[in-house]
Amino acid sequence: MFEERRRRRAIQRVQPGNGRPLKRFRWWQPLTRALFYLPLHTDDGRRLVYAVDVNHVRRFFSEDGKGKAHLYLDGRHHAESALPAVFPVQGGTIDVAVTAFGLRRCHYVTTEWSEHQLIPDRRSGEGRRAYLDRERPALSRLISFVSLILLVIPLLLLIPQLIEVAFKFPPVFERFGNFTSPVRLPVWLNITLALGAAAAAWERALRLRYNWLLDSMAKG
Question: Are 48 and 92 in contact (CB under 8 A)?
Fold first, then answer.
């Protein structure tokens, strides 16, 4: 019920497009732009190509920090919406959601509630990462594993420090006494771990992978 209300509110935010043409993905844009495609066929056999375009630079500098997603139909600007976005399309909706490091979701949801991730532009960061996964699966799995480790280690190191903070509250201190975290990291190591976690979260965003605990840790 809550999810359905959320989707209805998101659909109400959709605004009509202005018909401008979709710009080609440029070689310098893998870190600043996400572009995904969804080819569909109508009941009479006509082929439609939807495209979802998200500019991360504009998103970061927007007033709400979330920005907009733009929907194109057959190369023309069809609609736009504040993020997270739900665009009604042929046979279902396109759901778009973001993280601080990229996209966490860009899926076609049919009226039967089956989900399919859209196809990234081959020149985009997501497209290049998908190509690596297809052509070098062993290397891809290794990178994915390293990304996970780079997120888990800072989380494990943070837990005792959070416990120490919790024990400073008078009710907790009076009942359980004092607790001193055994973890004391130098500044340079904290910075290194933070940069590693950010890189890992960005790599996971290229695969549209997201975990609220792990990836929120990278955001700080």
Answer: no
Tens of pLDDT, residue by residue over 130-184, are: 999 999 999 999 999 999 999 998 888 877 777 777 777 777 666 666 767 776 7
Is residue 129 within 8 A of residue 202, CB to CB? The reply is no
Name the DSSP class of 23: P
Q: What is the DSSP string of 73-86?
A: ETTEEEEEEESSEE
Q: Does residue 84 register a pLDDT over 70?
A: yes
H helical segments located in the chain: 2-12, 56-60, 125-135, 137-166, 170-176, 187-206, 212-219
Single-letter amino acid, residue 47: R
- Among all chains, which residue has been given the structure tokens 């939807």? 50
Query: How much is the pTM?
Result: 0.86
